[in-house]
Amino acid sequence: MREDVRRRLDRAIWLDRAKYLGIGLGIVAAIGLAFGYETLDTKVDNKDVHGKVTDIEPLVTKSSVAEAEGENVIVQLDHGPLIRVLAYKSRGIKVGDEIQVVEHHHGTGRVTHTLK
Hints:
Blueprint: H1 3-42, E1 44-58, H2 64-69, E2 70-77, E3 82-88, E4 98-106, E5 111-115
Antiparallel strand pairs: 1-2, 1-4, 2-3, 4-5
């Protein structure tokens, strides 16, 4: 085999290997980014906030058991926003009650609320 033909063949083989290596590294990086985003959502900062119940609505679900036990409570927080949290009917929450809510700030920027 002539020298220049062998060099071109070696170069073509190395380019093919580099292409497969690049594709593999791209796939690994995409999987790593997906896992990084998932773990970012699990980092949560909790903050207690106060609010006043403005309305109570029935809980609409596919399960009749959940409808019988729960309700949607609309709360006007002291710092402004109007939120909706779920509560058991057994808590006896009424319109006008002052309640405490936990505000969950997730690492991805999502904010959720639960009744304390």
